[in-house]
From TrEMBL:
This is Iron oxidase. The keyword Oxidoreductase applies. Pfam families: 2OG-FeII_Oxy, DIOX_N. Belongs to the iron/ascorbate-dependent oxidoreductase family. It comes from the Bacteria. One of its GO terms (molecular function) is metal ion binding.
Length: 338
């Protein structure tokens, strides 16, 4: 029986997932590699994912065009306009991590849901229509296309994660992600005004992600760092790859066997850094429970987390968990969202 691994990692592993994504080749070998990465690191790069390179270039191009505009134009789609759907633009300093403003601006998107969708009719927070900028008309269509490609990829990776635990491929989709909560963000991290260590500002401070799986596209500026037991490890850009990491809900389901690893961003490149985190999360209304596997039940997660909170202790749905976290990130949205 495999136990929770306490090994340290010195770099984030790279996994070719083409067999898993294309359905031809040995997906079990890929699953074994994913399992090892989730146990040891909580992070892994994927290559061979099949997401169209042209689509990614368009996404990056139109995103840059958006952020180059003045702040008034960007605020035409400000988050206050998005209301409960939790969509739109926030300016630099508008988002907090552990109570401190991040050195980044960004746009929040999610699955595009019509007014008559049951979850929107039920007034469920974080569900609804996107706010797309009329100032860069091509961005909206490109974002929708990208989210569709990433949702497909998310389903395949979750199948791989299920196989890595020797569960049936559909374990997560059957219980949590048939209708996943999809959140997608585009961030622009301005260059750090100061390179001196005391005055540096985090692009995003140390945190873990909330859901099951994050798939991140980053440009070539660099700055993402991942916490290992012996210190911070860089996750530099690798052309053609995405960075994947598992979130709190998979940590919870596996009782800490698969780690939701802290990470942060420091942009010291001297120029803007764009990143595109895509969050593939459990359905808002499901309760996330430990997986009934001997290997999981044998885990007793005694490791103290970065934020001293426990992902195992809370009761309720994924939506409850997410809302409790979000109200800390955007205090002014609390009234609108809760
Ligand atoms: O921008 C990045 O590289 C990471 C962003 C991130 O960690 C997040 O949005 O949760
Ligand atoms: Fe993150």
């Amino acid at each position: 029986m495999q136990q929770s691994v306490d090994k340290e990692f010195s770099q984030v592993p790279i996994i070719d997932v083409s067999a898993l994504v294309s359905g031809t080749g040995d997906k079990y070998t890929v699953a074994t590699q994913i399992g090892q990465a989730c146990r040891e690191c909580g992070f892994f790069y994927i290559i061979g994912h099949g997401v169209d390179e042209g689509l990614q270039q368009r996404l990056e191009h139109f995103s840059r065009q958006f952020f180059e505009q003045d702040v008034e134009t960007k605020l035409e789609i400000g988050m206050n306009v998005g209301g409960r759907a939790w969509r739109g633009y926030f300016p630099v300093g508008g988002e907090l991590t552990s109570g401190k403003p991040d050195l980044k601006e960004g746009i929040y998107f999610g699955a595009e849901l019509e007014e008559n969708h049951p979850l929107v009719r039920a007034n469920t927070p974080m569900h609804g229509r996107n706010l797309f900028p009329s100032s860069v008309p091509q961005l909206g269509k490109t974002v929708l296309e990208y989210m569709e490609a990433m949702t497909k990829l998310g389903h395949r990776l979750m199948a791989g994660i299920a196989l890595s635990l020797e569960l049936e491929e559909s374990y997560f989709s059957d219980r949590y992600t048939t209708d996943p909560l999809i959140l997608f963000r585009i961030f622009n991290y301005p260059p750090n005004p100061s390179l001196s260590e005391e005055k540096r500002q985090w692009g995003v401070g140390e945190h873990t992600d909330y859901g099951v799986l994050t798939i991140l596209k980053q440009d070539n500026a660099g700055g993402l760092q991942v916490r290992s037991k012996s210190g911070w490890v860089d996750a530099p850009p690798i052309p053609g790859s995405f960075v994947c990491n598992i979130g709190d809900m998979l940590d919870r389901m596996t009782r800490g066997l698969y780690r939701s690893t802290p990470h942060r961003v420091l942009n010291l490149s001297g120029r803007d850094r764009l990143s595109f985190p895509f969050f593939f999360d459990p359905n808002f209304n499901v309760e996330v429970k430990p997986i009934e596997l001997e290997e999981v039940m044998a885990c007793d997660d005694k490791n103290e987390r970065w934020d001293k909170a426990s992902v195992h202790a809370f009761r309720g749905t994924y939506g409850n968990y997410l809302l409790s976290k979000v109200s800390k990130v955007f205090p002014e949205l609390r009234q609108t969202v809760l």
